[in-house]
Amino acid sequence: GQCKRIGNADSPQISGAPGSRSPSTPRRIAREADFVWSRVPCAHSVLRWPLFLVACLVIAVVLALYFAVRALIHAAERLLAPSETRRARRSMERAASFEAYQAAAAALDEANDMDAWKALPASRFYAAPLLAAARDDVNAAMRTADWPRLLQALQRSLREVNFAGHLTEALYASSFTGTKRLVEEYSEAIVGGLTLVRAAVEAHAEEAHAVQSRAMQAPAAPSALAMEETAAAPPRPFHDISCSDLLLDARRFAEFAVCTFGRTALCLSGGGGMAFQHFGVVDVLLRRGLLPKIISGTSGGAAVASYVCCRTDAELLGEACRDGADTRFPLRLDPDEIQPSCYLWAGTWAERLRHYTRHGCMFPREPVERFAEIWAMGHTTFLEAYLRTGRVLNITCCSLSGRDGEGEQTPLLLNYQTHPHVLVSSAVMCSGSMPNLLNPSRLLEKCPHTGAIRSHCKKETCYADGSIDFDIPSLGLAQAFGVRYSIAVQVNPHVVPFNFAPHGEAGKPIGWSGRPGRWRGGFVLCALELVLKECFRTAWKLMGLLELLPMYCGTKWDLFFAQVYEGSVTLSNDQDYMWKALNALENPSKEMFRYWWREGRVMAWQKLPLLEKRLLTEDALF
Question: I need a labelling partner for 515 at 20 to 30 A (CA). Which of 224, 289, 340, 611 fits?
Answer without folding.
Answer: 611
